[in-house]
TrEMBL record:
Transmembrane parts of this sequence: 7-24, 36-58, 70-90, 96-112
Keywords: Membrane, Transmembrane, Transmembrane helix
Domain of life (superkingdom): Bacteria
Protein name listed in UniProt: EamA-like transporter family protein
Organism field: Blautia stercoris
InterPro entries on file: EmrE-like
Classification of source organism: Bacteria, Bacillati, Bacillota, Clostridia, Lachnospirales
Length: 116
């Protein structure tokens, strides 16, 4: 049960990190619409940096409970979260090629997990 809790924390941390790309894209959109010193651009850039800071601290705490190869293999799940945010937040399309790529990543994580 303790290992399950550790994996949940690991994946919540990875999900947290995936919001960095969301804030980055939102900052980019604000830059394109309103310029470099707009409130939206500065706000989303700040959120992006704050998110990276919180993630870095949490990541250091979480990876103490795993072998590094397992932790970094699981970190590739970031790609899945990024695709989820792209579809649900930015209304981008998910292609068959995207899904195949995500499946390959997921299988790779499962393979690493099997040999932990």
């Amino acid at each position: 049960m303790e290992k399950l809790k550790d994996y949940i924390l690991l994946h919540l941390n990875i999900m947290l990190f995936s919001f960095t790309s969301v804030f980055s894209k939102l900052a980019s959109q604000q830059f394109n619409k309103h310029g470099l010193f707009s409130a939206g651009m500065i706000g989303f850039s700040f959120l992006m940096l704050l998110n990276c800071f919180v993630y870095a601290i949490a990541w250091q705490k979480v990876i103490k409970k795993f072998d590094l190869n397992v932790a970094y293999a699981n970190r590739t799940v970031y790609l899945i979260w990024s695709q989820i945010w792209a579809v649900f937040i930015f209304h981008e399309s998910l292609t068959v090629t995207n899904m195949i790529g995500l499946l390959v990543v997921f299988i790779g994580v499962l393979v690493v997990q099997k040999y932990e």
